[in-house]
Amino acid sequence: MPSEHRFDPNFTDAVINATGPGATPRVRQLTAGLIRHLHDFARENELTVDEWMAGVELLNEAGRMSDSKRNEGQLVCDVLGLESLVDEITYKLASTAASEPTATAILGPFYRHDAPQLPMGASIVSGLDNTEGDCTWMHGTVTDFRTGAPIAGAVVDVWHTAPNGLYEQQDPDQPEMNLRGRFTTGADGKYAFYCLRPVPYPIPFDGPAGRILKALDRHPFRPAHIHFLLTAPGYKPIVTQIFDRKSKYIEDDAVFAVKDSLVVDFVPFEGDAKAEFELPYDFKMASFEDAKKGPVEGTTEESASM
Ligand code: BEZ
Ligand code: FE
User: Fold this and answer.
1) Tens digit of each residue's pLDDT (9 = 90 or more) over 66-75
2) Which residue, of 56, 78, 109, 183, has the fewest CB within 10 Å?
3) In what residue span(s) does the Intradiol ring-cleavage dioxygenases domain sit (predicted)?
């Protein structure tokens, strides 16, 4: 173990103290923490110039590979678990409460903000051979997590990959906006649409994120999942995913995003000639007021802070 005093003990403070008076308190706090952790990391591991430069090259390459259809920097963070950790920190709301909003999960790099607005009950599947993929009737209610009341005007924005494991923007053979849609609830808070039962797929691994996975002897696969962004007037948006319990990699997601409460069952569906499976799922949202309050009444301080 290298002794702390093999290196100038005042160096890190000198770098942090170079911050000028114009830096905002948050910038000052974040950069001081980052500098301290980076310097400790370098000292503890006796980082060599070659190793540091390999890291710089990896960041540069991630930047060069990124464009409007690919976010390699985000992928690098994902395989290191950083997006999942930041998601947990940002959205945590008394996870032991008796009643709680739908858990969050990472956005990932494939969201598009302008998915088509579709009529309730429509299909998000376009341009795929009807025999490809298992058609699924997904439906449920969007409610207020505290009162249980249905939420009108909630927008359920959904996206998932095609059976070949690619999102439409990764795949020139898919029509624009395939497997994406936005559905707005009425007074009953209900939503419904046709989609496909998703498949596990590898995150892009032909760049720095893939090289990290290879060096760590890890696979690039995510378990089958469907992404959602829920918004509603007066409510805190929810970014989440639901995961197929039967999917390969459910215990071993390359980006560490699976949470127990988000694991669902696709049920064989008899009542509809179009759909092989049914997927009932209700979303629970927190109003901005409740999101500030935290745990529901009846939850002890102790259990809420566990
Ligand atoms: C996704 O689920 O779309 C995703 C998440 C993290 C990295 C790559 C893809
Ligand atoms: Fe995904």
Assistant:
1) 998 899 999 9
2) 56
3) 107-285
Please say whether the beta carbons of 181 and 122 come within 8 A: yes
Pick the ligand that lies closest to the CA of residue 80.
1
* CA-to-CA separations, 39 to 1, 19, 33, 35, 264, in angstroms, rounded: 16, 16, 10, 6, 43
Average pLDDT over residues 293-304: 47
User: Is the model's pTM score more than 0.85?
Assistant: yes
Q: Which ligand is nearest to the CA of 87?
A: 1
- pLDDT score at 128: 61
Least confident stretch, 87-96, 104-113, 140-149, 283-292: 87-96
| Closest atom, ligand 1, to C-alpha of 203 | 8
Q: Ligand 1: which residues within 6 Å by Cβ?
A: 75, 78, 106, 108-110, 203, 222, 255
The residue whose C-alpha atom lies closest to atom 4 belonging to ligand 1 is 108
Which residues make Cβ contacts (< 8 Å) with residue 25, sequence separation at least 6? none
CATH class of 77-303: mainly beta
* Protein residues placing their CB within 5 Å of the ion ligand 2: 108
